[in-house]
Amino acid sequence: MTSADPKTSPKTFHVKSFGCQMNVYDGERMAELMAADGMTATDDPGAADLVVLNTCHIRERATEKVYSDIGRLRKDARLADRPAPMIAVAGCVAQAEGDEIVRRAKVDVVVGPQAYHNLPGLVARAASGTASLDTDMPLLSKFASLPARRKVSPSAFLTVQEGCDKFCTYCVVPYTRGAEVSRPFAGIVDEAHALVDAGAREITLLGQNVNAWADGDKGLHDLIRTLDRIPGLTRIRYTTSHPNDMTQGLIDAHRDVESLMPFLHLPVQAGSDRVLKAMNRSHTRDSYLRLLDRVRAVRPDIAVSGDFIVGFPGETDAEFAETIALVDAVGYAQAYSFKYSPRPGTPAADMAGAIPDAVMDERLQRLQAALGRDQQAFNQASVGRTCDVLIERRGKLPGQMLGKSPWLQSVHLMTDAAIGDMVTVDLLSAGPVSMAGAERVRAAA
Questions:
Q1: In DSSP terms, which residues pair with 155 in a beta bridge?
Q2: For labelling, which of 118, 349, 393, 414 has a CA lying 20 to 30 Å from the CA of 171?
């Protein structure tokens, strides 16, 4: 292990999280760890003695972006004539790169996503002058080491499952998050109670394959039905699901559990069976559509979200056309779409048939145009509905508040309601769609 210069033990910290909701959850838990260790959080990385970069390895050039951020933090400190902060790299890039980050960037701490409960000790070691690395992957022992939940926002995340056994050929998650493991039922329920006690009214259950969660004979639907009985918890969501793990029990929960919101994120990735097989996806186009039919049969108003990859190695124009046809058939309320980018160490990275960037760009534009059309149509169809909106934060205008509809649309309204209130509104108009997140709807209380 490389030695670092001795540093003063940090008194302030800043956590910057990239990527998925699970990283947001992990970032919150790391912040709680450091607060419990006596450090004070700051929203300004320039004012922090310790900066934690909580990284994601899914997207292209993720590693280089980490090194760029490290360089920027040090440059900003030089320009401001202040000591450079202690830097900790956490998350999936930390897991994938390990010693290489310490060697190349001379950072103080590198900690993987299954070991961040050791962060205070790693920081203390780094303060003594020894760079610290921990990329062990124990089976969820970190959760027993985390502090009690403190004050949270009205909408909170709760990780229930980690890792992936699906080994899609394009995906690095099995290598950075490990095998599929589920947190014990009792620990999840206890944390959910603590979140509600700390101010949460909505909880989103998280997992790389959240609907693969199990504890003995209990499945995710059993967990949802138990959480539904927690006083004060009015909304439950879950993400991200895999079509292979969408059980009838979970489908029935969408019919029976009032607090389970009518929203389902169910990635498909492509509309061609040949491409799906090359991706090592366990579903076909037909099985995916039949699954959605079963969900819509019990919850007709459900909003469906998905993930798409264009330009997978060998994808032909005709196969891409099958993806467009699938989009036309489903009518997604929201979706995420990306150009394929090879992840080192994954089988797809060595596949022949790379698609030129210009072709991928054109396909992505066509796909996003189709998705945007359907998202706008879904929002427009919502106009005239009356629904409950959970107020989450203040808007930019005086008296404006922002919240979420049951269908995960961002709702803007003028109200004197407080953050955390549930307000019954009439949806008045649908704003422009954004391919980067939830869509805007305006409402009146």
A1: 202
A2: 118
| 181-182 and 218-219 strand pairing | unpaired
Structure tokens at 169: 């050929």
> What is the CB-side half-sphere exposure of residue 293 using CA atoms within 13 A?
7
Whether residue 387 is annotated as binding a ligand: the answer is no
Q: Are the C-beta atoms of residues 186 and 160 closer than 8 Å to each other?
A: no
Q: Is residue 164 a known part of a binding site?
A: yes
Scanning the structure block, which residue is given the tokens 């022992």? Answer: 141
Strand pairing report for 202-206 and 155-159: parallel
φ, ψ of residue 223 in degrees (nearest 5):
-60, -45
**Contact status, residue 390 vs residue 235, Cβ threshold 8 Å:** yes
- What confidence tens digit (pLDDT) does each residue in 208-241 have? 999 999 999 999 999 999 999 999 999 999 999 9
| Paired tokens of 85 | 């902060």
Mean pLDDT of the chain: 90
CA distances from 273 to 72, 169, 366 (A): 44, 15, 20
3-state secondary structure the chain: CCECCCCCCCCEEEEEECCCHHHHHHHHHHHHHHHHCCCEECCCHHHCCEEEEEECCCCCCHHHHHHHHHHHHHHHHHHCCCCCCEEEEEEHHHHHHCHHHHHHHCCCEEECCCCHHHHHHHHHHHHCCECEEECCCCCCCHHHHCCCCCCCCCEEEEECEECCCCCCCCCCHHHHCCCCEECCHHHHHHHHHHHHHCCCCEEEEECCCHHHCEECCEEHHHHHHHHCCCCCCCEEEEECCCHHHCCHHHHHHHHHCCCECCEEECCCECCCHHHHHHCCCCCCHHHHHHHHHHHHHHCCCCEEEEEEEECCCCCCHHHHHHHHHHHHHHCCCEEEEEECCCCCCCHHHHCCCCCCHHHHHHHHHHHHHHHHHHHHHHHHHHCCCEEEEEEEEECCCCCEEEEECCCCCEEEEECCCCCCCEEEEEEEEECCCCCCCCCEEEEEC
Question: In Å, how far from its chain's centre is CA 14?
Answer: 20
Most confident range (mean pLDDT) of 15-24, 125-134, 336-345, 373-382 is 373-382
Residues found in the chain: 445
Q: Is the dihedral of CA 150, 154, 160, 161 positive or negative?
A: negative
- pLDDT single digits (tens) 232-289: 999 999 999 999 999 999 999 999 999 999 999 999 999 999 999 999 999 999 999 9
Q: What is the mean pLDDT of residues 60-75?
A: 83
